[in-house]
Write a structure and sequence with these properties.
CATH class of the largest domain in chain A: Alpha Beta
Number of strands of chain A: 11
Shape of chain A: globular
CATH superfamily of the largest domain in chain A: NAD(P)-binding Rossmann-like Domain
Number of helices of chain A: 7
Number of domains of chain B: 1
Largest interface: A-B, 27 and 33 residues
Structural class of chain B: alpha+beta
Radius of gyration of chain B: 14 Å
Strand content of chain B: 25-35%
Mean pLDDT of chain B: 85
CATH architecture of the largest domain in chain A: 3-Layer(aba) Sandwich
Oligomer: heterodimer
CATH topology of the largest domain in chain A: Rossmann fold
Shape of chain B: globular
């Protein structure tokens, strides 16, 4: 089982937003090794309390580091000096960042559900009365600042998901302009995958009329406006589900369709009974 | 719930000296209720925290973890959900899961 020391190191890496893997030996001819755990950092640093030999350590790094880099938790067989070892490599990727601009009614369930989905959630508003921890107990961070200053400085990566839900369309637009200005200097692959902006069709057409002449080097493909999937959302909670369903769709590169659409006809489905030793 | 919160819970169980085991899905084939990485804590009275998918498969793992916590030695268990679609309440998913079960208090056999 994980020791206190390893647990502390793991939490510390995560709070510093470093990718890390916790590795468990799940098979080893010497049973005393089964269940042993160690940590592997992205830079190849292995933290081991078992005093593995240097040869074994480098074997672990060779097999486990690619798994950490792919962010894919899985089990890997490792051949080492005639013996077979198996390791379960659990990757702890840095959580994706959800930024919610505007601390209104919709933002409350968005922050709460966003947290449930494992995002690191930041809520930002320029009014102290709204931007406070009491209203957003689930957010990781509640920031009171002008929108322009915030979006001028906040780190943006492909794992940053941004929602513009401020009280006035002009604040959404200035925030968007600030983001587009920064993204124009980035390669397309380094830009955010999702900037959602609330708004009616009419308002949006007015905004883009202006933006398309202002930002000629931006293709706008990461902008989602109006926000959300079409599930008929009306209340703040329904709108939050609709928005976060859309974000998951983008994050997981999925269709957003009903899964039943993968089945053309129930009556033509075939089920074949399977038995052991088959 | 994210994984670090799960380990935080494991740490508190360990600190309190409660007898328990952790079961983790370390591999799957076919269609399974939860994917690799799903985890749960099993307590000596059969109570669980978290889930690896419920149903008969989870029941098998709970059974197996009692001997793991008694002996203090980790074990692997394979849950086979491919047999029979309509037997009891199990098997509707139709895949296989490899589950690693380890005691929260491991007995050092070095």
């Amino acid at each position: 089982m994980i020791s206190h020391q390893l647990y502390e190191l793991l939490s510390e890496a995560l709070s510093k937003k470093q990718d890390i893997a916790l590795i468990t030996i799940t098979k080893h001819p010497d049973l005393s090794y089964v269940g042993s755990k160690f940590l592997l950092h992205k830079n190849g640093l292995l933290v081991d309390e078992n005093q593995f030999s240097l040869g074994l350590q480098s074997k672990f790094i060779e097999y486990c580091l690619p798994i950490l880099k792919q962010h894919k938790t899985k089990t890997v067989p490792i051949p080492y000096n005639e013996i077979q070892i198996e390791c379960y490599v659990e990757v702890f990727p840095v959580p994706s960042h959800l930024i919610v601009a505007g601390a209104g009614h919709v933002s409350e369930p968005v922050a709460e559900i966003g947290k449930m989905l494992g995002f690191y959630v930041t809520v930002i508003d320029d009014r102290q009365k709204f931007a406070n921890d009491e209203r957003f107990p689930f957010a990781d961070e509640v920031v009171c600042s002008s929108y322009i200053d915030f979006f001028r400085n906040v780190p943006i990566t492909p794992e940053t998901y941004i929602l513009l839900l401020t009280r006035g369309h002009k604040f959404d637009v200035v925030s968007l302009q600030e983001l587009l200005k920064r993204e124009e200097h980035l390669e397309v692959k380094d830009r955010t995958k999702y900037i959602g902006m609330i708004g009616s069709r009419r308002r949006i057409s007015g905004v883009f009329e202006q933006l398309k002449s202002e930002f000629t080097d931006h293709n706008f493909i990461n902008i989602y406006s109006p926000v959300g999937l079409d599930v008929g959302a009306q209340t703040p909670a329904e709108i939050a589900i609709s928005i976060l369903a859309e974000i998951l769709k983008i994050k997981n590169a999925s269709s957003g369709n009903s899964l039943k659409e993968k089945i053309s006809s129930y009556s033509q489905l075939k089920f074949r009974e399977r038995f052991k030793n088959e | 719930m994210n994984n670090i919160d799960f380990y935080k819970k494991v740490m508190s169980v360990q600190n309190e000296g409660i007898k328990a085991a952790v079961a983790t899905i370390i591999g799957t084939k076919g269609s399974t209720p939860r994917r690799t990485g799903a985890k749960m804590i099993i307590f000596a009275d059969g109570e669980i925290y978290g889930t690896i998918g419920g149903g008969c498969g989870e029941g098998e793992v709970i059974e197996k973890s009692f001997s793991v916590m008694d002996q203090g030695i980790p074990a692997q268990h394979q849950v086979d959900l491919t047999e029979g679609l309509f037997y009891e309440d199990g098997g509707i998913c139709g895949g296989i899961m490899d589950v690693f079960i380890e005691p929260i208090h491991q007995i050092n056999i070095l």
